[in-house]
Amino acid sequence: MNNITNLELNKKTKIDNSLSILLTRFSHKNAISDKQVSVLSGHLIFFQGEKEYELMISMYESADRISHKKEYESINWNEYTIKLKHISSYESIDVVITKNDAPIKKNIPLDKSQLISKANKIITTKYSQFIFDPLLYEITAWKSSEETIVKYRRIIRFVPLEKKDENLDYDFEVNLTNQSVSPFDFWGLDKFYFPTIEEQEKINFVIKEFGLPRLGFNNTIVEGPDMYSIYIDNEVAFGEYFIDKKTGKECMGSIEGSYALPDFPELINQDPLIEIKE
Protein backbone atom coordinates (compact mmCIF):
# COMPACT_ATOMS: atom_id res chain seq x y z
CA MET A 1 0.00 0.00 0.00
CA ASN A 2 0.91 3.73 0.17
CA ASN A 3 1.05 3.72 -3.65
CA ILE A 4 -1.65 5.31 -5.81
CA THR A 5 -4.60 2.96 -6.35
CA ASN A 6 -6.99 3.54 -9.23
CA LEU A 7 -10.62 2.70 -8.40
CA GLU A 8 -12.73 2.26 -11.53
CA LEU A 9 -16.48 2.79 -11.60
CA ASN A 10 -18.47 -0.39 -10.83
CA LYS A 11 -15.32 -2.51 -10.53
CA LYS A 12 -14.44 -4.05 -7.17
CA THR A 13 -10.77 -3.55 -6.33
CA LYS A 14 -8.95 -5.75 -3.84
CA ILE A 15 -6.79 -3.66 -1.51
CA ASP A 16 -5.41 -6.42 0.71
CA ASN A 17 -6.52 -9.78 2.11
CA SER A 18 -9.16 -8.16 4.34
CA LEU A 19 -10.42 -5.19 2.29
CA SER A 20 -11.96 -4.58 -1.14
CA ILE A 21 -13.49 -1.31 -2.41
CA LEU A 22 -16.17 -0.67 -5.03
CA LEU A 23 -16.71 2.77 -6.58
CA THR A 24 -20.48 2.85 -7.21
CA ARG A 25 -21.25 6.35 -8.47
CA PHE A 26 -20.39 10.06 -8.50
CA SER A 27 -22.37 13.04 -7.26
CA HIS A 28 -21.80 16.71 -8.00
CA LYS A 29 -22.99 19.92 -6.36
CA ASN A 30 -22.43 23.12 -8.32
CA ALA A 31 -21.41 26.40 -6.78
CA ILE A 32 -24.09 29.05 -7.10
CA SER A 33 -21.65 31.98 -7.04
CA ASP A 34 -17.93 32.72 -7.38
CA LYS A 35 -17.78 32.86 -3.58
CA GLN A 36 -18.54 29.19 -3.16
CA VAL A 37 -17.15 25.82 -4.16
CA SER A 38 -18.37 22.93 -6.23
CA VAL A 39 -18.19 19.49 -4.65
CA LEU A 40 -17.49 16.33 -6.65
CA SER A 41 -17.83 13.14 -4.61
CA GLY A 42 -17.12 9.47 -5.20
CA HIS A 43 -19.41 7.00 -3.42
CA LEU A 44 -17.67 3.88 -2.17
CA ILE A 45 -18.58 0.52 -0.66
CA PHE A 46 -15.97 -1.06 1.59
CA PHE A 47 -16.10 -4.85 1.82
CA GLN A 48 -14.50 -6.38 4.89
CA GLY A 49 -15.36 -9.98 5.73
CA GLU A 50 -19.12 -10.44 5.43
CA LYS A 51 -19.87 -6.78 6.05
CA GLU A 52 -20.33 -3.79 3.72
CA TYR A 53 -19.81 -0.13 4.61
CA GLU A 54 -20.80 2.90 2.52
CA LEU A 55 -18.50 5.93 2.52
CA MET A 56 -18.01 9.06 0.45
CA ILE A 57 -14.85 10.98 -0.47
CA SER A 58 -14.88 14.44 -2.08
CA MET A 59 -12.97 17.07 -4.01
CA TYR A 60 -13.75 20.75 -3.31
CA GLU A 61 -13.07 23.15 -6.19
CA SER A 62 -13.26 26.91 -5.80
CA ALA A 63 -15.44 28.69 -8.37
CA ASP A 64 -13.51 31.90 -7.81
CA ARG A 65 -11.78 32.86 -11.02
CA ILE A 66 -8.78 34.22 -9.15
CA SER A 67 -7.93 31.33 -6.85
CA HIS A 68 -9.56 28.34 -8.64
CA LYS A 69 -8.03 26.01 -6.05
CA LYS A 70 -8.84 22.38 -5.38
CA GLU A 71 -8.82 20.52 -2.08
CA TYR A 72 -8.88 16.74 -1.85
CA GLU A 73 -10.41 15.00 1.13
CA SER A 74 -8.80 12.42 3.38
CA ILE A 75 -10.93 9.99 5.40
CA ASN A 76 -10.15 7.55 8.18
CA TRP A 77 -11.93 4.20 8.38
CA ASN A 78 -10.97 1.52 10.91
CA GLU A 79 -7.24 0.95 10.47
CA TYR A 80 -7.13 2.61 7.02
CA THR A 81 -6.52 6.19 5.87
CA ILE A 82 -7.76 6.98 2.35
CA LYS A 83 -6.45 10.13 0.67
CA LEU A 84 -8.09 11.28 -2.56
CA LYS A 85 -5.56 12.37 -5.20
CA HIS A 86 -7.49 12.74 -8.46
CA ILE A 87 -10.92 12.26 -10.07
CA SER A 88 -11.05 11.27 -13.74
CA SER A 89 -14.18 12.41 -15.60
CA TYR A 90 -16.77 10.35 -13.70
CA GLU A 91 -14.88 7.17 -14.60
CA SER A 92 -12.41 6.54 -11.79
CA ILE A 93 -10.60 8.03 -8.84
CA ASP A 94 -7.00 7.81 -7.67
CA VAL A 95 -6.44 7.30 -3.95
CA VAL A 96 -3.56 6.55 -1.63
CA ILE A 97 -4.52 3.97 1.00
CA THR A 98 -2.47 3.59 4.16
CA LYS A 99 -2.98 0.82 6.69
CA ASN A 100 -2.20 2.11 10.16
CA ASP A 101 -0.65 0.02 12.89
CA ALA A 102 -3.87 0.16 14.91
CA PRO A 103 -7.45 1.16 14.13
CA ILE A 104 -8.41 4.78 14.71
CA LYS A 105 -10.91 4.41 17.52
CA LYS A 106 -13.48 6.85 18.72
CA ASN A 107 -11.80 7.32 22.09
CA ILE A 108 -8.54 8.48 20.46
CA PRO A 109 -8.56 12.31 20.11
CA LEU A 110 -8.89 13.50 16.52
CA ASP A 111 -6.57 16.15 15.13
CA LYS A 112 -7.71 19.46 13.67
CA SER A 113 -7.98 18.29 10.05
CA GLN A 114 -10.04 15.24 11.07
CA LEU A 115 -12.43 17.40 13.11
CA ILE A 116 -12.88 19.81 10.19
CA SER A 117 -13.56 16.88 7.85
CA LYS A 118 -16.27 15.60 10.22
CA ALA A 119 -17.80 19.09 10.43
CA ASN A 120 -17.84 19.45 6.63
CA LYS A 121 -19.71 16.16 6.32
CA ILE A 122 -22.32 17.25 8.87
CA ILE A 123 -22.92 20.46 6.88
CA THR A 124 -23.20 18.51 3.61
CA THR A 125 -25.65 16.05 5.14
CA LYS A 126 -27.91 18.61 6.86
CA TYR A 127 -27.73 21.43 4.30
CA SER A 128 -26.99 19.96 0.90
CA GLN A 129 -27.97 23.25 -0.80
CA PHE A 130 -25.27 25.14 1.14
CA ILE A 131 -21.99 25.07 -0.75
CA PHE A 132 -19.08 27.11 0.55
CA ASP A 133 -15.43 27.67 -0.25
CA PRO A 134 -13.32 26.70 2.80
CA LEU A 135 -10.46 28.85 1.49
CA LEU A 136 -12.50 31.96 2.25
CA TYR A 137 -12.85 31.12 5.94
CA GLU A 138 -10.60 30.94 8.94
CA ILE A 139 -11.51 27.48 10.24
CA THR A 140 -10.65 26.62 13.84
CA ALA A 141 -11.41 23.67 16.11
CA TRP A 142 -12.21 23.95 19.83
CA LYS A 143 -12.79 21.45 22.61
CA SER A 144 -13.92 21.43 26.23
CA SER A 145 -14.76 18.47 28.44
CA GLU A 146 -18.37 18.66 27.24
CA GLU A 147 -18.25 19.55 23.56
CA THR A 148 -16.17 19.93 20.41
CA ILE A 149 -16.88 22.79 18.01
CA VAL A 150 -15.53 23.75 14.58
CA LYS A 151 -15.86 27.47 13.81
CA TYR A 152 -15.92 29.02 10.33
CA ARG A 153 -15.15 32.75 10.32
CA ARG A 154 -15.42 34.68 7.05
CA ILE A 155 -12.03 36.25 6.42
CA ILE A 156 -13.47 39.20 4.46
CA ARG A 157 -17.02 40.44 5.05
CA PHE A 158 -18.78 42.55 2.45
CA VAL A 159 -21.87 44.68 3.13
CA PRO A 160 -23.61 45.66 -0.15
CA LEU A 161 -25.10 49.13 -0.43
CA GLU A 162 -28.68 47.87 -0.73
CA LYS A 163 -28.29 45.51 2.26
CA LYS A 164 -26.55 47.83 4.72
CA ASP A 165 -29.55 47.82 7.07
CA GLU A 166 -29.88 44.04 7.09
CA ASN A 167 -28.35 41.91 9.81
CA LEU A 168 -26.50 39.48 7.56
CA ASP A 169 -24.77 36.31 8.76
CA TYR A 170 -21.24 35.57 7.57
CA ASP A 171 -19.95 32.99 10.04
CA PHE A 172 -21.18 29.61 11.22
CA GLU A 173 -20.10 26.78 13.48
CA VAL A 174 -20.65 23.04 13.80
CA ASN A 175 -21.03 21.36 17.18
CA LEU A 176 -19.61 17.89 16.66
CA THR A 177 -21.02 16.69 19.98
CA ASN A 178 -24.69 17.15 19.09
CA GLN A 179 -24.22 17.72 15.32
CA SER A 180 -25.93 21.12 15.39
CA VAL A 181 -25.07 23.84 12.87
CA SER A 182 -25.44 27.44 14.04
CA PRO A 183 -27.07 29.70 12.95
CA PHE A 184 -28.70 27.54 10.24
CA ASP A 185 -30.55 25.25 12.66
CA PHE A 186 -32.22 28.30 14.20
CA TRP A 187 -32.67 30.83 11.37
CA GLY A 188 -32.10 28.88 8.17
CA LEU A 189 -30.02 30.27 5.31
CA ASP A 190 -32.13 33.36 4.56
CA LYS A 191 -29.81 35.77 6.37
CA PHE A 192 -26.56 34.15 5.30
CA TYR A 193 -24.65 36.27 2.82
CA PHE A 194 -23.93 34.84 -0.62
CA PRO A 195 -22.30 37.41 -2.94
CA THR A 196 -23.63 37.84 -6.43
CA ILE A 197 -21.20 37.81 -9.35
CA GLU A 198 -21.31 41.63 -9.43
CA GLU A 199 -20.67 41.87 -5.68
CA GLN A 200 -17.76 39.44 -5.93
CA GLU A 201 -16.19 41.68 -8.56
CA LYS A 202 -16.45 44.59 -6.12
CA ILE A 203 -14.84 42.51 -3.37
CA ASN A 204 -12.01 41.50 -5.70
CA PHE A 205 -11.50 45.17 -6.63
CA VAL A 206 -11.06 46.21 -2.99
CA ILE A 207 -8.80 43.21 -2.28
CA LYS A 208 -6.54 44.23 -5.15
CA GLU A 209 -6.51 47.99 -4.52
CA PHE A 210 -6.25 47.95 -0.73
CA GLY A 211 -4.36 44.72 -0.12
CA LEU A 212 -6.83 42.70 1.92
CA PRO A 213 -7.00 40.67 4.04
CA ARG A 214 -4.94 42.00 6.94
CA LEU A 215 -3.95 38.93 8.91
CA GLY A 216 -4.85 38.87 12.59
CA PHE A 217 -7.75 41.29 12.05
CA ASN A 218 -11.41 41.23 11.16
CA ASN A 219 -11.76 42.65 7.63
CA THR A 220 -15.05 44.31 6.66
CA ILE A 221 -15.92 46.18 3.46
CA VAL A 222 -19.02 48.41 3.51
CA GLU A 223 -20.21 49.70 0.16
CA GLY A 224 -21.32 53.33 -0.11
CA PRO A 225 -22.68 55.34 -3.05
CA ASP A 226 -19.23 56.65 -4.10
CA MET A 227 -16.70 54.84 -1.94
CA TYR A 228 -15.94 51.73 0.07
CA SER A 229 -15.41 51.96 3.83
CA ILE A 230 -12.93 49.38 5.11
CA TYR A 231 -12.91 48.41 8.76
CA ILE A 232 -9.95 46.53 10.24
CA ASP A 233 -10.06 45.51 13.89
CA ASN A 234 -9.12 42.96 16.52
CA GLU A 235 -9.20 42.87 20.31
CA VAL A 236 -6.58 45.57 20.76
CA ALA A 237 -6.53 47.81 17.66
CA PHE A 238 -8.72 49.19 14.88
CA GLY A 239 -8.54 51.10 11.63
CA GLU A 240 -11.08 52.73 9.32
CA TYR A 241 -10.20 53.58 5.73
CA PHE A 242 -11.99 54.87 2.64
CA ILE A 243 -11.28 54.29 -1.04
CA ASP A 244 -12.95 55.64 -4.16
CA LYS A 245 -15.21 53.11 -5.91
CA LYS A 246 -13.84 53.95 -9.36
CA THR A 247 -10.16 54.71 -8.84
CA GLY A 248 -9.41 52.63 -5.74
CA LYS A 249 -7.48 55.58 -4.29
CA GLU A 250 -7.75 56.37 -0.58
CA CYS A 251 -9.92 59.37 0.26
CA MET A 252 -11.11 61.24 3.38
CA GLY A 253 -8.03 60.19 5.33
CA SER A 254 -8.07 57.30 7.77
CA ILE A 255 -8.68 56.59 11.43
CA GLU A 256 -6.46 54.28 13.47
CA GLY A 257 -6.24 53.56 17.17
CA SER A 258 -6.12 51.06 19.97
CA TYR A 259 -8.66 50.04 22.58
CA ALA A 260 -8.24 50.89 26.24
CA LEU A 261 -8.67 47.58 28.00
CA PRO A 262 -11.02 47.88 31.02
CA ASP A 263 -9.63 46.91 34.39
CA PHE A 264 -12.37 44.41 35.24
CA PRO A 265 -11.76 41.33 37.37
CA GLU A 266 -11.21 38.30 35.18
CA LEU A 267 -14.10 35.87 35.07
CA ILE A 268 -12.82 32.32 35.29
CA ASN A 269 -14.51 29.71 33.10
CA GLN A 270 -14.15 26.35 34.79
CA ASP A 271 -14.51 24.48 31.49
CA PRO A 272 -13.27 26.74 28.68
CA LEU A 273 -13.09 25.85 25.02
CA ILE A 274 -9.44 25.21 24.15
CA GLU A 275 -8.30 25.63 20.56
CA ILE A 276 -6.94 22.54 18.83
CA LYS A 277 -4.18 23.87 16.62
CA GLU A 278 -2.79 20.67 15.10
Automatic annotation (TrEMBL):
Lineage: superkingdom: Bacteria
This protein's name: Uncharacterized protein
Organism encoding this protein: Flavobacterium jumunjinense
